[in-house]
Structures are given as C-alpha cells and as structure tokens.
Amino acid sequence: MNSSAARPTRVAVIGAGPSGATTAGLLAKKGASVVLLDDGKRPALVVGESLVPLLTVVFQRLGIEDAVCALGVRKPGVTFSISDDTIFPLSFDAVRGVLPTYAYNVPRKEFDQLVLDTALKAGVRHISTVAKLVADRDLDTVQLAPETLELIPEWKGQQPDVVIDASGRRRLLARLLDIQASVGPRQDIAHFAHYENCPWPEPAGQVEIGRLEKGWSWQIPLPGRLSVGVVVNRDHAKKFGSTGEEQLEALIENDRRLAAATQGRRRVSPVATYANYQLISHRGSGRGWAMVGDAFGFVDPMLSPGLCMAMVSAEKLADTIPAEGGWKPALHEDLTSYWQWFRDQLAAWQNLVNYFYDGRIFALHRTGTDFSKNLPPLVGNAIQRHLGKNFAGMASGALTSHPYSRGLLSFLGKYGIRGYEPADFAIQ
Length: 428
Fold this sequence. Notes:
The longest helix has 29 residues, at 329-357. It is globular and about 70 Å long. By secondary structure, it is an alpha+beta fold. The strands form 5 sheets. Strands 4, 5, 12, 13, 14, 15, 16 and 17 form an 8-stranded mixed beta sheet that branches. Helix 12 packs antiparallel against helix 13. The chain is built from 14 helices and 21 strands. It folds into 3 domains: 10-45 and 108-182 and 278-351, 3-Layer(bba) Sandwich (FAD/NAD(P)-binding domain), CATH 3.50.50.60; 188-276, D-Amino Acid Oxidase, Chain A, domain 2 (2-Layer Sandwich); 355-425, no CATH class.
C-alpha cells in the first residue's frame, strides 16, 4: 500500500449495491481512482423499498432526487395500526425545519440501477466479476488476488490503498478476517411480494405497518402496485404452509384487517423471502480496508433504517477517505472513528425499534393523547408538537441518535405511561 501525495488514492469497492455505488461515486467525484467489482447477481425483489427523510438529503447531494421522484412514490409518513382503536399516524411534516418533510417509496431494481449509473457518470470503473481477495489475519490486511488485480491495468500492478466491503449480508471481509458480530434476539422471517388491484393506504404514499397475531405486516405503495409483506417468527410461519408463497398468502388471509385491505389482490411478482435479524460487527476497518452498509451491520426493518444507514454510512466513509495521497497512518484512526460512529448509529436505531416492538411507544401515544385532552388547547397542542417533532425526528433519521430526543423517549418510557400496559400493544 504505497502512498504518494501526488497521485489519486486507489480504492477497490466490492459490491455495486446502493452502499457500494454511493461510496464509489462520491470518492470518484472528488478525484480518487475507484474500481467497483461486482458479479451482477441480484434477486428479483430486494427488501428496503420504503425510505426515510434523511435519505432525501443524500439524494440531493448526489443530484438524483428528481430521478428518484420520477421512479418512486412520495411518502408523507407511516401509520402504525396496532388494533381497531390504536392507530398511530406518524407524519414527516413534524420534522419541518430539520429535514425534508417527505421521503420516497422506490422499486429497488430501478433505484439500485439509478445509483449505480450515477457512480459510473462520476468516473467509477465497473468490472463485472467475482472479486477474489487474499486476506492475512495476522497482519489484518486484504489485497486483491493477482487474477483480479490484472483486470485493472491502469493501476499497473499496484494494490488498492483501500478495499471497501460493500458485499451486503454476505459480509465478505468479516468472514475472511473472522470478525465477530453482536446478533439481536429476534429470529423472524420476512415474506413479501408485489400486488395489483390493491388500494393504497391513505394519505397517498403513506406506508402502513400492521400488528399481526405474531409479528407485523407492511403495505408500501409503489407505482402501479402495492408491496405487501409479513414479518413473523420462523416456527409460527411454518403453521401456514411449506413454501414462501403459501405462508405469505395464508398469513395475509389470517389477519382480518390486512385481508380486507388487500381484498381482490393479484400477485404480479415472485415472493421474496429474507431472514430478518439484527447484526452489528465488532469491528469495521483495519489496515487498508473498511466495511460499509449491510456488510458492517443492519437492524430490524420495522422503521426502514436499512437503506438509509447503507447510504448514509457510504457518504460518511467517502468523506473519510482522502482523494489523493493513498494510505497514510492517520487514515487508520479516521476509519476507526468512522465505524465506531456507524456502530453507534445502528445501536440507536435498534433502541428506537425496540420501543415499537415492546409496545412502549404506542402506550405513550395513548397516554399523551389522553393527557392533552385535559389541557388548554394551546398547551396541549404545543406538547404534542414537541413530542411529535422528537419522535418523528428519530424515526426520520434526523434525531435518531440525538441525546435530547433519546433522553426524552427514555424518560417518558419509564415515567410517562399512565393507564396503559405496553405489553397490550407489543408486537410478538
């Protein structure tokens, strides 16, 4: 890993999904020599179609918001439907002045291609291949194997200064270097598909999350169709059939509200199945390498943090790596700070998601609604706006790790619930 202040930093990015393409594009745009290595294999459907407002800021930086808007659906917020009498609407309008008051729902195939095309326009070289790597656990280094390095003649046989693992849940470098991870407690399975002849939740573009007997469901409006998914315990799912198709359809029909909302549906895509679990790597960088996006960690999809953290971490990593000069000792410390920041962000998201699973957020909502009714309108409305701004701000990505917002939620979760049991609203 030679360095020279006069030459562009050589960066090899493994994986051309949104995290890899965003990292590569931003690095190339500021002058680094970037090669994106990817085998081109993609499933028919990719989870992560519902986005949060923080990503809108990233789109604006990449210059692609208009294109995202053209291929997706504008999303004003999320409605959590726990029971017939417990509906928790979360509007992104509450974050006005902090973030854009909207996000997008996107068909992932078209969206992922857009992000990749943007990287290529920035000067990234894309090589369609299975990248072969050589790792040395004792030295904590990763290099391209000779046959892969030969595909990059402009580097004249020189290894990259930085190898970035954007391989997603394959966690390529973690496996090569034997890097362990902390894994969350839930062992769910997610099935979803796209349907026609389904009305969208209101208001237009709103995502709806519904509580199931054991688990939860989503309805995500997309152009001309509705993405419908269920997230349930693996053993519970087996009671509804032996295949993903059988389980998805039976679980939809088993829930009265979800079945009514999708009555007359016609499936127009394969059924996609994903393992839903929570994982954060114990380390995310070393001498000449770093992880980005899902390759480092991911948390439960309840609040749609996955694609957000994939692309925001990509932005952070691209800002950390210098465009010129190659590897320098100081970069090791900077990359350590980067992954520690990433770890803390994922932990903050998971902490917030836990409030939804264990029912505290819904018990707080009911308590706050009752309390505000007994106050003068001006006072009650002011309190509701303040709580809404902080809670919506956390769910939108702006205030997820903000000390005040987290402290407020923690305090109210311990002392602010009156007359309701969180367990009554919990998602099993």
